[in-house]
Specification:
9 helices, 3 domains, single chain, 6-stranded antiparallel beta sheet, 6-stranded mixed beta sheet, PmbA/TldD fold, about 35% strand, alpha+beta, about 400 residues
Amino acid sequence: MDLEKIIRKAVDLGVSEVEVYLARISETSLTLSDVIETSKFIKLSSLGMRVVVNKSVAIVGTQDLSSESIEKSLNSAISIAKVSSPDPNWISMNKKVSQTHVDDLFDKDTAYATPEDLKQVATELLESVKEGYGGARPVRGAVSARSIEVTYMNCYGGPLTRSETISSLYIYARVDEGGKTGTYSEHDIQRSYKKLRAKEVGFEAGSRAREFIYAQELPSGTYELILFNRVVSSIVPVMIAPAISALNVQQGRSPLIGKLGEELVSEHVSIVDLGASPEVLGSKPFDDEGHPTRNTILFEKGVLKTYLYDTYTALKEGKESTGNASRTFSTAPVPQPHHLRLMPGEARLDELISETREGVLVMDTIGEWLSNPVSGHLNATITHAYLVREGKLVKPIKGAVITA
């Protein structure tokens, strides 16, 4: 597709600025129960056009990439911009259209993976559930391999193209014994389907499901809390991602307003947004408005160092974008993290457990997405955990609520 032609056409029609965002996605997937049930292949192309006419901004997206549809969508965007109210804070689109070199984001075998390729992974996943415990059975699951190609261009530069692959699997296992039921789910995500840990994931789901047959309710009280890594990876994005968005800060929707340079959490906590790290999920050479990405330190030893910016929010403060613009083909870019990572400390999990007198090791939660990142209030329901007493795991528990 000739994106430059679209840019020229928009300029000829009198726009002040214009950008084009093209995304192509293909995905092969298998759905599972205790067997492989279905396979599916999808291929989707989407085009987004954003235009500016005298500080009035409009966006139109289409998934019909015929010449007629593209021209109609462009004309529609221009018409909408002409009747829209000007944005007094608008300065310009991204003028630094370039990219960072980031390795190992694309795996050719994954991009062209067939149902037969994924069947081998799925079979190993299903069989491993029973290896975890003979009485366990897989209830539902999936294996997928996705390829994503994004091309960006605006009136200041481009085109830029990036390609990445993502492969994932998950399994939900169940054990029924003595009139009681135990369940557990596990997942894995990699750049290559060949690196998926099917055997480990299936074994973990089956063995944990058995352990939680006799999980008991936790009495109300105050406990020391140890969060398993999968729980942290669920809670941190929910609570941190909206709060560090410069857009939310500027609009008064963040608890971190005016907190730069302050120690807000433990000195043992450092959080980094990995926007340009090899093989890391979420990393990419440029963001969704063609700005080069980078790794950004958000919290360093408990101190808030920066917010995350796209071009709009950065120029509003006279700053440069951190390369965190994120969008769909039909929505405006907004600043979002690429991959939040809580940097590891020095203690091991077994050490944390051994040092805990009365606490809870939380393995899984639900409902954390209903927390309030504006106020900073966290709320999550524990579905799978262990009571820790005098440095030992005493029994499986469930049903408690985490509030903070």
